[in-house]
Specification:
- One of its GO terms (molecular function) is oxidoreductase activity.
- The protein is α/β, with parallel strands linked by helices and 346 residues long.
- It has helices at 29-41, 64-73, 106-120, 156-168, 182-195, 218-225, 254-257, 270-283, 288-298, 312-319, 328-340; strands at 3-5, 12-14, 16-19, 46-48, 82-87, 125-130, 172-178, 202-206, 228-232, 302-307.
- It has a single domain, classed as NADP-dependent oxidoreductase domain (TIM Barrel, Alpha-Beta Barrel), CATH 3.20.20.100.
- Helix content is 36%, strand content 14%.
Length: 346
């Protein structure tokens, strides 16, 4: 397992991060603790959660993911682990989360951080992320920016000033973004530099063989700002494992359990692209999952690849991808497929 430094922080994270959004819905607390135990034996020191998890977000399950982690975390050597979580932003119908008023403002940040600390049973959070922007941006499969959808937003400077106070209080160590745009990352960095406020060290965005949009805008921003990518959905909601090629109605899978979450992968050319990548994996004697994860972790801008699994066998296969090194020939074949089916699931 390799370890990468996150931006200008002193956090060194494993190149594989354990995602936990299924804990509390698809995974029991026993499942979760088994996964966590196995992950750390394999050198993983980085865990990612969110206050709204598990998915799908519901009032009766909200917070269970962090609570499951907390029961495990209290038994661990805390300073050997890097724990990340997120605050939910506005624009989602979460009436059960702080009354539905989820602006990234002082009151919400303060309560969200305190609630996460309590559920996680820890004194501090290593990386605290804004799950999606407080302002309007197209996210989760939306691609076209529409100025008519802009909403009132908490100024970035005001958000950063609150986080500066929370960091000073010792409740969080570093700040990150998620589902952000090139403009958004640039503004967060610029304002932090201008006002002497905390600089974000990461952005967590979707990145996989079916969605390489990051390469066309954010990659340049990251190079010049020293912000790193935490890549989520490296398996494209499970599509890149190849399991949906013949049957998109498999039982107990994310696409069947949470149809609203998988719409970005039900677009034209997704299945054709997946078939091509599955055949490519066979050509090089790899599993489709190993090919997909190895590709993501090979990118220069990726600091950690977030994997999630509902079974221990899936987790083992995904973690084994750290042993897969792709060569120039495989990359050429990947790019040929990408040219034929460019970003079918942005």
């Amino acid at each position: 397992m390799k370890y990468n430094q996150l931006g200008e922080s002193d956090l060194k994270v494993s190149e594989i991060c354990l995602g936990t959004m299924t804990y509390g819905h698809q995974n029991t607390i026993e499942d979760a603790h088994q996964q966590l135990d196995y992950a750390i034996t394999q050198g993983i020191n980085f865990l990612d959660a969110a206050e709204m998890y598990p998915v799908p977000p519901r009032g009766e399950t909200q917070g269970k993911t962090e609570a499951y982690i907390g029961e495990w975390l209290k038994k661990q050597q805390r300073d050997q682990l890097i724990v990340a979580t997120k605050i939910a932003g506005p624009g989602r119908p979460f009436s059960w989360l702080r009354g539905g008023n989820n602006k990234v403002d002082r009151d919400n940040i303060t309560q969200a951080v305190d609630d996460s600390l309590q559920r996680l049973q820890t004194d501090y959070i290593d990386l605290y992320q804004i799950h999606w922007p407080d302002r309007y941006v197209p996210t989760f499969g939306q691609t076209a920016y529409n100025p008519e959808l802009e909403r009132e937003t908490v100024p970035i400077a005001e958000q950063l000033a609150v986080f500066a106070d929370v960091i000073k209080a010792g409740k969080i160590r570093y700040l990150g973004l998620s589902n952000e745009t090139p403009w958004g990352v640039s503004e967060f960095v610029r304002i932090a530099n201008d006002l002497g406020l905390p600089k974000v060290v990461t952005t967590q965005n979707a990145y996989n063989l079916l969605n390489r949009n990051f390469e066309s805008g954010l990659a340049e921003v990251f190079r010049y700002t020293d912000v790193g990518l935490l890549a989520y959905s490296p398996l494209g909601f499970g599509f890149l494992t190849g399991k949906y090629i013949e049957n998109q109605q498999l039982e107990n899978t994310r696409i069947t359990l949470f149809p609203g979450f998988g719409q970005r992968y039900l677009k034209p050319n997704v299945q054709e692209a997946v078939k091509a990548y599955v055949e490519l994996a066979k050509k090089y004697n790899l599993s489709p999952a190993q090919l997909a994860i190895a590709f993501v972790k090979s990118r220069w801008f990726v600091k950690s690849t977030i994997i999630g699994a509902t079974t221990l066998a899936q987790l083992q296969e995904n973690i084994d991808s750290v042993n897969v090194v792709l060569d120039k020939e495989i990359f050429a074949d990947i790019d040929a497929i990408h040219t034929r089916y460019p970003n079918p699931a942005p």
